[in-house]
Write a structure and sequence with these properties.
The complex is a heterodimer of chains A (about 270) and B (about 250).
Chain A lengths: L14 H12 L1 H6 L8 H9 L10 E3 H4 L1 H4 L2 H22 L7 H10 L4 H28 L8 H23 L4 H14 L23 H6 L6 H33 L6
Helix pairs in contact in A: 6-8, 7-8, 8-9, 9-10, 9-12
Chain B lengths: L6 H5 L6 E3 H26 L24 H6 L5 H22 L15 H23 L40 H22 L1 H35 L13
Chain lengths: ~270, ~250
């Protein structure tokens, strides 16, 4: 299959520019970075994937079946891409945001009215986050309907379920950070449910026999107080920006490694 | 050998067509990334992310709603105590999802959309997903102040105030509710459980044999729990039953 794909190509590049390109490509520096050369033959196409650290996340060859848009909807890839987009916008947002009770909301106002492109930055983070929750659910639905969780991919489905949960938790912890009425009360409603946990929440069944009270139950551990306050804000911030992304990244590495080893699902 | 088939082994099968990742796959990834970036960017230029007034402990909004993906659980609070709606049900959903590949072992049907050879799996999963989104849509669009049913968008109760009279199932705060006595509740639950567990064994004998007792029990317990959630919603809406089982420690 070693056919040269550039044989009949019409070139619009002036000859002197071509000469300059040829010279640059022949330098030691260029060759040390792009070791394979332009991948215009099948062996080079394989080599360019195999020899690059970042490209190596993709296989050198993929099954035609699994590549079809109508089969996979690209939903897993889009979810991961949104995670990357959220990481970038999230890091930029961290420059302008301090998780302090009296400052957080003012920082949101600054982002909207003072920071150049701050409003677009925050909007992209917000809509991207909603999008990620939606696409990860669609990804799960697609994987179920195509039966792609079946052997040998059972455990990767389990990791996927955990990643779904982490996506929801990431979105939920981010909800509190603007410190406005919307996030504040949504997180109040959400965390109040934890106080009803059997045995571990102070309003839950059987917990009174364990000496569980409002100031030592699971909700107290989650929000660092008996109601949503400055401690809850810092905890949500740290979980949102450090803890949960680290756990999610660790699981994603596993998730993608298994897909890389097992290949895209296809008819057996 | 179907248990441990790897990519390399699948690739050696006749009729399995493959192509180079470069440039075809990379091209799809690049286009997809560009498309999503542009989509999110355009959305961000057109619509501002919501930002309400500064958080204030003394000002409780009515209703205070959870984020949309958790609002299904909040909607279940109408029908269940918080330890069931907020703790037991979400945990059980996670456990159920994780169990799926270990209880559904028909390895030949994979890698394609195939309804006819896995009807039960299709129907149960679709039912569960639909229920989840039905609860989200109800909670997000149809619930207004005091968690009453409202028209979406319009700030007005469903059918007007006169239409909702005390005891009507849609008027949550004014409905006249009663609970079943403990023996009746336990008897009904037990009968439901026993019939639910044994009836499919008698009707679908092959299915039971194929699954084995452990897988069958795991599947049926989750099916019955899902149906029980729907059943409780019906009991509450149309018979005004608040609890099926009442004990000094917890109510279901």
């Amino acid at each position: 299959m070693a056919t040269n794909l550039n044989d009949n190509e019409v070139s619009f590049v002036p000859p002197f520019l071509k000469k300059i390109f040829e010279y640059i490509k022949s330098t030691v520096v260029w060759k040390s970075i792009f070791r394979v050369g332009y991948p215009d033959t099948m062996p080079k196409r394989m080599a360019v994937m195999r020899s690059s650290f970042y490209m190596h996340i993709f296989p050198t060859k993929v099954g035609v079946h699994g590549m079809k848009i109508k089969y996979g909807w690209c939903m897993g890839g889009i979810t991961f891409f949104l995670f990357l987009l959220l990481t970038v916008t999230g890091i930029l947002l961290m420059f302008y945001y301090v998780p302090e009770e009296h400052r957080a909301y003012n920082d949101m106002k600054d982002l909207r009215y003072m920071v150049p492109y701050g409003v677009v930055l925050r909007n992209m983070h917000r809509w991207g986050a909603h999008g990620m929750v939606f696409t990860v659910i669609l990804h799960m639905i697609r994987v179920f309907y195509t039966g792609s969780y079946k052997p040998p991919r059972q455990f990767n489905w389990t990791v996927g379920v955990l990643l779904l949960l982490l996506t929801l938790l990431l979105s939920f912890t981010g909800y509190l950070l603007p410190w406005d009425q919307l996030g504040f009360w949504a997180v109040t409603v959400g965390t109040n449910m934890a106080s009803s946990t059997p045995l571990l929440g102070y309003e839950g069944p059987f917990s009174k026999y364990l000496g569980i009270q409002i100031d030592n139950d699971i909700r107290f551990a989650l929000i660092g107080g008996t109601r949503i306050g400055p401690n809850a804000l810092v905890r949500a911030y740290v979980w949102h920006c450090v803890g949960l992304p680290l756990i999610a990244t660790a699981l994603m590495i596993f998730h993608f490694w298994r897909i890389r080893k097992d290949g895209f699902s296809g008819p057996m | 050998m179907a248990e441990t088939k790897t990519d390399a082994m699948i690739a050696t099968q006749p009729g399995y067509e493959r192509m180079a990742s470069w440039p075809y796959f990379i091209w799809i990834v690049l286009l997809c990334s560009l498309f999503i970036t542009i989509l999110i960017w355009v959305l961000s230029m057109l619509f501002n992310a919501p930002l309400e007034e500064a958080a204030e402990w003394a000002k409780t909004p009515n209703p205070a709603k959870a984020p949309w993906y958790f609002i299904g659980l909040q909607e279940l609070l109408v029908y269940f105590d918080p330890w069931i709606a907020g703790v037991l049900i979400p945990n059980q959903i996670l456990i159920g999802l994780i169990l799926i590949p270990y209880v559904d072992t028909v390895p030949e049907v994979q890698g394609c959309y195939n309804y006819s050879r896995r009807k039960f799996q299709f129907l149960f999963f679709t039912f569960g997903i639909s229920l989840w989104f039905f609860l989200i849509i109800t909670g997000q669009l149809l619930r207004g102040p005091s968690w009453e049913i409202y028209w979406p968008i319009i700030d007005y109760p469903l059918g007007g105030n006169e239409w909702i009279y005390p005891g009507h199932p849609f008027k949550a705060s004014q409905a006249k509710l009663h609970s079943l006595s403990l023996p009746v509740g336990i008897t009904i639950s037990l009968i439901g459980f026993v019939i639910g567990m044994t009836l499919p064994v008698l009707i679908f004998k092959n299915y039971f044999k194929k699954l084995g007792i452990i897988r069958y029990s795991l599947v049926m317990v989750h099916v019955l729990l899902t149906l029980a959630v729907v059943g409780k919603i019906f009991l509450r809406l149309f018979f005004g039953i608040k609890y099926v089982i009442v004990t000094p420690w917890f109510n279901i």
